[in-house]
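Reading a protein record of the kind used here takes little practice once its layout is understood. The fold follows as a row of integers, each naming the local backbone shape at the matching residue. With these conventions in mind, the following record can be read line by line:

_____
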Amino acid sequence: MIVLVGFMGAGKTTVGRLLADRLGLPFVDTDLVIEERERRPIPQIFEADGEPVFRDIEQAVVADVLSGPEAVVSLGGGACGREATREVLRHHTVVHLDVSFEQAKRRTAGDAYRPMLHRPGLQELHASRREVFEAIADVGVSTDGRRAEAIALQVLDGVVGKDGILVAPPGGTYRVQIKPGLLAEVGTRLSTHGAVLVVARAGEPALPAVLDSLDGVVHVEELPAGPVRTLDVYSRLAVRAAELALHPDDLLLAVGDEAVVDVAGFLAATCNRGMRWAVVPRSLEALVNSSLGGEVALDLPQARNLLGAVHQPVAVLSDPSGVSPATDLRFGAGVAEAVKIALVAEPGDLEPLVAAAPQVLAGEPAAITALVRRAVATTARLVTVDEREGEGRLHLNYGHTFSHAFEQVLDTEQDALPLGLMAAAHLARRLGMLDDAGVGLHRSSLRAFGLPTVHRFQLGTLRPYWLRGRKFRDDVRFVLLREPGRPEAGVPADDDALAGALDDLAEDR
């Protein structure tokens, strides 16, 4: 919940509607809810029953609204006078829209609808309420002399925080918080109302710090080494969730690499027909890609990602410290994801990304944090406007049609995506879409990080895996680039073009 508080005339309704529109959330004005329930306007309640009765009604309504679905909520100016209401607000993000007494008077002059406007000692009331608002608010924004649009943008910045990036698709709005040392703050950054089930691999180095930060009822389910995006592991987790009697408002917390995030997220999407979940990504691949956007999946022997869902987390808490080539066996896959994201949607990020390659490969936290922040900011923008691969998000599958098939015939997944990106570049050139310079940019960007760009694959070994792919439409189709930053989805290719692209990949030409 984002709850707006402030004195009369602060602009809570106007700013609240702007925020709700930007975040894809409903807007709720508790004064309007009161009038709807009572079937009479607030001035009549004050006149007929007195202020104490109105405050009783208001307290009950605020408690009901804040226990409901997430929303942007505007409270009446006096609602925070009750200790019970202030206690409820401690579990939500409270924004104080601060308005001076002089400005409030000008904005509300002549408004007969506000019962409190005509009481004596109005200036003292303003001062006392301001103290309350400042004491309970997580974010404070001055509104005097400012346009509502500018106020709303500042509120967004304050809500997300300097370490956060907002993701706001229709399926749920949340923050990706990126900060070295965040592991110790996981418990304080999460809203946990019930039990927490933590899912992580056995021996996960981050697990002790995460568990130390959590309060309340916490259960841990440790996964084995090796593949975990399987029906067997999912079934085990589902049985455990049932044994613990987890409910939709409990929290499932995934701590680990991309595979852990996927299987835990798939459980969250299906348990109770959907339950709250959050992510603490612990590999570079998960930090830049799989921890946000809500796409979760399981593998079957026939192909990757055959069982999947889209279920947004409530928070992503990204601590890049401790993630380096020395500790992350799939570090190269994470770098390839960052290169892919820049190639598809933000080619201007390639130059600083490549320039920082020595520092990234040395495991320098500042360089890795900057890489993660750029990739997440771009991905957040794409998944906010396209949650379910209608257009923009679909482009993030660039290189994946090749790489997912390559994984089936390679000894390691580590090399699959860079080779998939190169194969896609060669195919685009064969189809007359991408020029030599574009192919060269792929090659130089990947090689700067020591990633492979050459391998021999046989077309016949790849086709069975493409047949079962999600993007198969009468034949295999690809996301390709016309130039960096200009992707096109659903591109078909005949066998001659595909065989030629694979030859180019094998001969590095």
Summary: The chain has a mean pLDDT of 90. The two ends are 54 Å apart (CA to CA).
